[in-house]
Design goal:
Length: 334
């Protein structure tokens, strides 16, 4: 039971979150002017933004991945840049480089497209490892070094990387250690038939509404701070740890049959990101405390790229999603 002090505390947190999260509905409805359907993707973008994480989106071409992040940057009053990853891209094309200025007889710094609030890394698996590392270092450190100077990147800073699951020719798959840097990996599916009908109509008319900046960067910064204050009970923390530990030691959770299917489990970064994403989800739902449903809502996006599967699992057509489903269904909900 909560004592009276804690309950008063939760009431005040709830009130604050209700106030700070008022912009979520405004932002979502502004994005809906252009993005039809794809509610799951829009929600995950907001979780990445509020949780100060980055998102890896996987889906076939033409599912509005680029459009979604561009629309978000317009609605948030932020700067947007798009980097099209290709096999001949160099790290300097992403972070920037030193250029010799003949007039001044000196070097000046030309900043790369990474210097924006919202960066779309299109088809990240098309670029070689050197370029991927340059981007991922910027994502992790939130800073870039060009020559001898270090630049702090703009806040908020959200990288949305996309990869096409269909094409394997001329691609460089992201190593597990780099994929782990992404807070969420979201798989985008085709829109519903009714939504697609609306998309066809809007495109044929050419009548997309203009997206207005409805949220300031200061509001986002305040919301990012407020997310940290969302209350998470010890029981929820234990629930998160049980899910993560079950990916590492399934035999301890009556899931011995999963042992030969898992090559490696989620790292501590998985636990941190699952807790953060659950808090962000509660914030989006305008609640000042986390419930088990929040954890279940984000668990697939946080863990699907953090659970490695063995050849045996591949032979049996078992995916990391199936493994997560079995774990979530087995672990006792607080």
């Amino acid at each position: 039971m909560l004592d009276s002090n804690t309950s008063i505390d939760i009431a005040s947190i709830n009130e604050k979150i209700e106030r700070e999260s008022a912009f979520v509905d405004i932002l979502s409805s502004e994005m809906k002017k252009v993005i039809v359907g794809q509610k799951h993707m829009v929600e995950r973008l907001l979780i990445g933004l509020l949780g100060q994480g980055h998102i890896l989106l996987e889906g076939v071409p033409g599912l509005a991945k680029t459009l979604a992040i561009n629309t978000l940057s317009q609605a948030v009053h932020g700067t947007f840049s798009r980097i099209q990853f290709t096999p001949d891209l160099l790290p300097a094309d992403v972070v920037g480089t030193m250029i010799y200025n003949i007039k001044l007889n000196d070097f000046s710094i030309k900043k790369g497209p990474i210097f924006a609030n919202f960066v779309l890394a299109d088809e990240i698996n098309r670029a070689p490892a050197k370029v991927q590392s340059a981007l991922l270092e910027a994502m992790q450190e939130k800073q870039v070094t060009i020559g001898e100077e270090t630049f702090i990147l703009d806040r908020p800073f959200l990288v949305m990387a996309t990869q096409n699951p269909v094409e394997q020719e001329g691609t460089y798959p992201l190593p597990e250690a780099q994929v782990d840097r992404f807070m969420l990996k979201t798989v985008i599916n085709y829109p519903e038939m009714a939504d697609e009908q609306m998309i066809i109509r809007a495109n044929l008319k050419g009548s997309f509404e203009k997206v207005n900046p409805v949220v300031s960067l200061e509001q986002i910064a305040r919301a990012q701070q407020a997310v940290r204050e969302v209350y998470m009970d010890e029981k929820i923390e234990k629930y998160i740890l049980d899910i993560v530990f079950a990916t590492r030691f399934p035999e301890k959770y009556r899931l011995e049959n999963l042992k030969p299917l898992i090559s490696f489990g989620a790292s501590p970064r998985g636990s941190i990101n699952l807790a953060t994403a659950a808090k962000c989800y509660a914030f989006i739902k305008r609640r000042g405390y986390v419930v088990p449903e929040d954890v279940r809502a984000v668990v697939h996006d946080v863990l699907r790229h953090r659970v490695g599967i063995t050849y045996e699992a591949e032979a049996e057509n078992v995916t990391s999603e199936d493994i997560i489903n079995k774990i979530v269904n087995e672990i006792e909900v607080p």
